[in-house]
Hints:
This protein has 3 domains: 4-68, 5' to 3' exonuclease, C-terminal subdomain (DNA polymerase, domain 1), CATH 1.10.150.20; 76-311, P-loop containing nucleotide triphosphate hydrolases (Rossmann fold, 3-Layer(aba) Sandwich); 348-409, Orthogonal Bundle (DNA polymerase, domain 1). Helices cover 40% and strands 17% of the residues. Helix 11 (213-233) packs parallel to helix 12 (260-266). The radius of gyration is 25 Å and the shape is globular. A 9-stranded mixed sheet has the order 5-4-6-7-3-10-11-12-13, sandwiched between helices. It has a two-stranded antiparallel ribbon with strand order 1-2. It has a two-stranded antiparallel ribbon with strand order 8-9. The protein is an alpha/beta fold. Strand 12 (300-306) and strand 13 (309-311) form a beta hairpin.
Amino acid sequence: xxxxxxxxxxxxxxxxxxxxxxxxxxxxxxxxxxxxxxxxxxxxxxxxxxxxxxxxxxxxxxxxxxxxxxxxxxxxxxxxxxxxxxxxxxxxxxxxxxxxxxxxxxxxxxxxxxxxxxxxxxxxxxxxxxxxxxxxxxxxxxxxxxxxxxxxxxxxxxxxxxxxxxxxxxxxxxxxxxxxxxxxxxxxxxxxxxxxxxxxxxxxxxxxxxxxxxxxxxxxxxxxxxxxxxxxxxxxxxxxxxxxxxxxxxxxxxxxxxxxxxxxxxxxxxxxxxxxxxxxxxxxxxxxxxxxxxxxxxxxxxxxxxxxxxxxxxxxxxxxxxxxxxxxxxxxxxxxxxxxxxxxxxxxxxxxxxxxxxxxxxxxxxxxxxxxxxxxxxxxxxxxxxxxxxxxxxxxxxxxxxxxxxxxxx
Length: 410
Ligand SMILES: Nc1ncnc2c1ncn2[C@@H]1O[C@H](COP(=O)(O)OP(=O)(O)O)[C@@H](O)[C@H]1O
Ligand SMILES: [Mg+2]
């Protein structure tokens, strides 16, 4: 990020005015429309244009560049499901707006929670080692859910919560205001993901009827443009969730995202989440469809909603993905609370059992018992090949992983 001081011809009064209005770097100024800057009290149209031009000049934005020199720095945040990552082209992209739309219960808020945690993982683990701004207009943010997801990824839940800057939103102008504030967090608090869950909920309630449509679209337009600019300026990922309205097309009905063209054209990636089409009504299986993306095939995949966020499978362990090894049924809130209590009260640690080994749940512990392995010591002594051959569905790699995790406890 380049400072405003570097811009030719700028004085300290102008720097102060810009900063007060949330424009805190040369990049932010260079990417602003002149109309927005000239509206700042005390700047004026001419000065605004001059400063923007000089900022663009300083950043090399006033020349065409041969395509071979274009610098691409897209990074990806893992969604918690390798299938979703695959159809997203690697995960949630930085520098772009991604809209996920779908009906009630389709998993949008679960995805938002999962990403709020995974963005904090290191780059090697699929994150950006960064914080998140969470704009919550439906009041569905859950700290408990975050704690469980943090545990799944082996992160400290307190630290994870400290890196989620949450704003509960009460009206659409409040939402617009907090989107502006989120930009400041990108600069000062290493925020690299902004979640808006959901984009349209409040507007839909506030702007009712066709007469209000133009005004609603203008507000929406401002939000989308502000977010696009933040995405590019700070190479930040943006997740917008959106509801759907059912549209009748002749005899058929189809679900369409609300918000119309402004949202549709403003977002680089549009993904639809579906609940329908699965045999069991209470299944937590979901489908995702890439509806529109500049450079992705129109692919689909399945994923699951679990108590620990978005995943590839309903309950089982996740092979070959580092940091994703868990058993859903083991992770309950009581568990986390009990654990925190025990840390607080500083009790003598109890003797460790197989259940304390990461990756081993009750079922696995029982199966190990059948092989006469009842203690951590016994697990460490076992020959991985022999043990794996005796337990169905268990690979040598898995046994070695248990042993590695067990080793950490002794
Ligand atoms: N702890 C949990 N374990 C499994 N599924 C859950 C859990 N909590 C919520 N769900 C499921 O997640 C779905 C809601 O997902 P959500 O992400 O809130 O949807 P949306 O935001 O699209 O409305 C519900 O079907 C609910 O059953
Ligand atoms: Mg939701």
